[in-house]
């Protein structure tokens, strides 16, 4: 790995080699294989600041090493307005860093956290038991509209938390209005024009569907046939 990067390999000397547990301050010393392996294993998963403290290196030095190892190839430099909009919308709603990396292809976790801090976007606080109770009670019937009962939560935050809790929204279809009873006048009118096709009957019965008229005609024919 280090040969292809043009880095000089040296067998760690017990007196100078980095100890991850007790890192020396070695900002000017050569990078060892142990350090490079650590960067390769942790970059993008652990914050750059934490890595720098562990290795006894500067933050910029850690980033340079990561660049040399090809860990930053997908990074695109300046953030676009679209990326910032995604960060504002989803980071503050509680999306995990893994989700944010999917939404912001090429951005590492540390970069996402750093930019969120820079533009003043903070993660939402943990859900309170009362909030979750409301969510469990109303989400199945209200869906994301339950956000109106949770003033500190957006619809997106509600949707995310409901998914984490395994809650499902069951959309209730509006009840169909019961069919209108046929009046005596309508029955007499239909009986008089029983042989008319629907296209002509609908002018006489504007509030009746084709199906309703067909059923009514069947009932009239049955009455005449059986004398009822």
Characteristics:
Arc Repressor Mutant, subunit A, mainly alpha, 228 residues
- Poorly predicted ranges: 14-24
* Number of DSSP strand runs: 0
Q: What is the terminal separation in angstroms? A: 96 Å
Number of helices: 11
**What is the radius of gyration computed over CA atoms, rounded to a whole number of angstroms?**
35 Å
Outline the biggest β-sheet.
Answer: none
Overall average residue pLDDT: 79
Number of domains: 4
Overall body shape:
rod-shaped
In N-to-C order, the SSE pattern is: HHHHHHHHHHH
Strand coverage percent: under 5%
The appropriate CATH architecture of the largest domain is: Orthogonal Bundle
CATH class identity of the largest domain: Mainly Alpha
Written account of the structure:
- The protein is mainly alpha-helical and 228 residues long.
- The protein folds into 4 domains: 1-73, Arc Repressor Mutant, subunit A (Orthogonal Bundle); 81-118; 129-164; 184-226, no CATH class.
- The protein has 11 helices and no strands.
- The chain has helices spanning 33-42, 48-55, 59-68, 81-91, 97-103, 109-118, 129-142, 155-164, 184-192, 198-204, 210-226.
- Helix 2 packs across helix 3.
- The longest helix has 17 residues, at 210-226.
- The protein is rod-shaped, with a radius of gyration of 35 Å.
- It starts with 32 loop residues before the first helix and ends with a helix.
- Residues 14-24 have low confidence and may be disordered.
